[in-house]
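Anyone opening a protein record will find just a pair of labelled lines. A complete record is shown below as an example:
=====
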Amino acid sequence: MAVEKPPSAGARPLVPERFIDVPSQRLYYLSLGFLLQAIKVLDVLRNLFASDGPNYYGRKWFCIDFSYIAILSQLRIPRLRYSKAMVLLQILSLWFIDGLLFGGIRLNLELPDLPVTPEPFRLADIFAPAGLLSFFSGSARGDQHLLGQHTVHMSPISTGHLNPDAHTFCLSPPSHTVLIPILVNNTSPANVRYSFTPLTYVEGQSGTGRVEHIELSAKDLKVIEQARIEGLQSVRAYSRDSSYEDYDDDEDETLSSDSRLQKSQSLAHIRATKPGTIRLERVLDSSGVAARLVHPLEVTVVPCPTAHYTDDLLSKPENAVRCAGDNSNVDLSIDIRGVPPLSLRWSKYVNEKKESFLVEGIEDSSPTNRPHTDSRDVVRSSSRIPQMLKVPLSLSLDSLGRVTFVLESVIDGMGNVVLLDQGVASEAFHHGVTPDSKMTRSLNVLQRPSISFRNCGPGNPVPLLIGSEASLSLYATDSDALDAPWNIDIKFEPSDGAKSSGKLVKPWKDTVQTKKQTFSISASAAGEYTITGIRGKWCEGDVLSPETCKVVEKPMPTAEIEWKRIHECSGDTGVSASLILHGTPPFQVYYRTQRDKENPRDLVKTFTSSRGELTLQPEHSGHYFYSFLQLSDTNYRKVELNGPSIDQVVHPLAAADFVSAGGRTKRVVNSCSGNMVDIEVDLRGTAPWNLELQIVGLRNTDSLEIRDIKTSPARIRVPIPAQIDREGGSFEVDLVSVEDTYGCKRSISVPGVSVNVRRVKPTAKFYSKNGIRQVTILENDEADIPLRLTGDGPWTIKYRRAEEPEFVKTEHMKSPNDHMHVRNRGIYELLEVSDSQCPGSIVAEENYYYVDWIPRPSAQLDPQTPSTFETYNRSHILPPICQAHDDHVDLDLTGTCAYIKRRPPFQIMYNIAMNDESGVGTIVVDQPTFSSIQSRTRFQLHTSTAGRKYYEVKQIGDTAYPLHKHKNAVIPRSERLVFEQQVLPKPSAKFKNNNRMSFCLNDVLTPRDLTSSDGTILLEGTPPFQLQLSIRNLAASKVRKETVEVHDKVWKLDLPSYYFTSIGPYQVIIESVHDSSHCEQAELDLLRRSIWIDIAETAAIIPFDKKKDFCVGDVTQFQLEGTPSWTIGYRINGKSYMQEAKTSPWSIVQQRSGEFTVTSIAHQQKMCKAAITNLHMNIHPLPSAQVGHGKRIYQDIHEGDQAEIVFTLIGEPPFTFTYQRAEPSPKKGGKPGKVLETHTVSGVTTHEYSVFSALEGTWTVTSISDRHCRYPSLQEGLEKPRH
């Protein structure tokens, strides 16, 4: 068994797997790589908007990508281990991508307008390394000939301004600290000196304080600034967490003060911890230079003004309630402290409605507080000393609800504004927050409550049922919820003999407490309930009417019942009960009936009055038991009745009636055949019955007795009187009497039965005129078939169509001359008819009717038309025709029927189709319509274009079927007339293009380049073609004609028998063309009928400029002789190249320095080549200039100093260069501004030149010239001036 060798130490991961397993190592490191690439994308976006981005970002990501790949190779993570060559390739790939992203590498992919001299293939041919080197050189300019710039900045004058926004400052607890800003411009303060004068200080008087002089070092200023920033952060955190969005405006201005500073400005702060006057004396920078101080130089800090309510009655919640109608005012007192004169803004909230007030000029007017000296210092000092004042405030209460008095803000004489409530009071109403008790005073003015009974009063007592309680509703109006609970005093006086739970009730008084405006009390005894008073938690109330409610007890219902038996001839037939009811109607009486041993039935009957009668007469005989169970009225439900019961044996009386004779309506029976009619009779009583009937005819009356009828209902057969049976008519059958098995005979008075006897049956037939039962209609129109009916309507007929005998239809007719409406053509047959009484018969030989359609018009080819009929597509193939030849076919149009021979005018809509591009299917190219007034019309064929034409007649219209009314009635495809014809094209020939062809002297007229389309002739028609050409030699004035047979539709000029014998232009002309169809040729295209051929000997090249020295980037021009295009051979520093030129003159841009020599030239597609021996030029490199050795130099100088600007010149002396001074960019590395001055220096024979200047600006070189060349060229300098 083989043992797996453990991996060597060099193959193991650097991080042991016991710490991190291999998959996790791969995941972590690859995730780090993806994170770095995401950061790189962000840096690419920043680089787009950064002026000095490529240097910084390029160097940064070169190092990061190199470190990432190098560390990965050392970690030795499996599946992420690569060879050294692969690691090097990864580093180079990432560096290449970084160069592209951050501008270090530029792709030279632009195509120049002019040909350029080539260079040997190197990586520099594709990638421009100048930007790549700029990552490490620090230069970001793209012009390699004019590099560097020198920027000189003048240090500006610095200033210091105490309290630049003229804010007021005051000290407020708990910090008792304010920061007074100093606006410093163009410097950073290192030392600040100021003086502090107390408010009580009077010069020359002892005991009033002293003036202090304080100096703040840079360290002290930094500590103050750090404390300020921490304070701002805490303010921001508080503003986010606090539920109130409003805060001091001064703090808001402090939070945004830094954002309003300019770039040269900064803020320093002085911390003041006690009131007094601060005067700024000096501001020094780090070099000891004093800043210029801006007036005013001092600011006064005083204690912040305050105001609050003093302790009064409203400070306690139990005293903050008033009732409506109280005439006392509210007296409040306010303590105010601050520098006079003071202003106080307060507001009054009444049910969340705000009303604002302002009190101004608050100061102590007593003589003891006025200064008694004329000293200005004493007056100034005393005017800034805070005073404690007490202000009374008397307020009236004229509104109901919650009234709150809020102190909003106080303003002292210095202009300091202090918000006392910070907007908390207004928010407290919405959020239920208790406001500051020192800044607010609140009280509630409550409405006095009132109470009365509801739904009860004099004349409207409340009923009380025995054994239950009644609910008395009370309603407290105009009550305030804060005044709850309310105590209501109630007095009760019982009615005479009133009882509750079987005991007599005594009068009582009670107090009910409730928190609801509407509530109820329970009354268990009858009597009078009276409200005597109401009082709330704070206010006494009023008792409104109705204040008295009377409760009346309702007695239970009772009944007095008396039974009576109903006796007739056969015995007892039922019972009746007389009821006298006591209670509140309506009443419901519940009673029970039981027959023999059947299950009892519980019934109920409603009586609306106090007296009632209940009669019970069952229809079936038997032993019955009746009893009353319960009684209900409006107040009580199902009170037990112990009333009398009764039982009896019932024999119901006999009775009879005709079946289905509802109410007093007389039943009608129809008789269509036979001498007897069946009538059903319903019998009641005890069987068997004897029934007596009476038959009432026209003149006499007959009696009929039927005996021993044992079932009910019974069918009685009644004979029809003889005269009525013969002639028809009507008679009546009436019931006279009925006798049951007990011999009790009763007369009957019910509506009789009327019998209608019909002896004539209804008939139906189709109406005909002159014996013709036929109608012709338009297709899909409706036909009205006339009927003739006899009998009494309405009629019901059944019919069918002979073409569909299995479908029988039914129609209902109301008139004897009605019509039957049909749409389909065919033979219609009447099957059955019946009127309102009897079925009838169909009249023979008049029961058929024929409906026909007027035929639609049709079209067909004239039989004399020569054509071939194809059965597979039902198409008539016409003989072919040449294009543009007139051709037609004759069509026979028919639209005949039995009555109409012709129906012009005709309209014909047809489709014209052609084969599609693939040749497999067809496409419809047109769908025209034409009209004809004759039955034979000439159909014009379309021969204007060549191809196979298909014609299909889609619709035909005439007078009966006009197309505009029958748009959807198209001829079925299997019935359409279709014919087709091949239109042969006219033969034609033309050259594919007009390009001039080139040949050399004595060449044969045969194709030189088989891939070129020059000299190609395109032919149209039916091959083979007979093509006649003429070749004209304009120099020799000779014309030669050639006839060629061409078997294809494309032919390239190929006449091996023809030689070019002279130099100059030749013209080949197409004279005529014929094809196998023998159609006349089409008109030849004059522009494509001929081409020109140029015959030349050798080419030549002549330079425009005779000088021999040129510069890199110059354009050299040459005049080319011969026929385009030319091929020029040249040599640069001994290496040969080829260049093609299509036009003359030929220009080339010189890209390399050295010797440029033209060696050869050829034309006629690299033929007729000539050697060049004496055409060569010297190409010199372009000069370069650098400012500050090609770097960006930034130098700061003070007034009186000078800066040295060094220019480095590269090339062949003497030099002439131009430099300029521009406004420096406000941002380091930015683009210079406006050009301030420009100078040109000539005749410089050294490679270095210096300029000294005490001016501010950015120096750059705009152009340089040496012995041979100038950069940039004069034209480029005019088009793109440097700034």
Observations:
- Residues 1159 and 1173 are 6 Å apart (CA to CA).
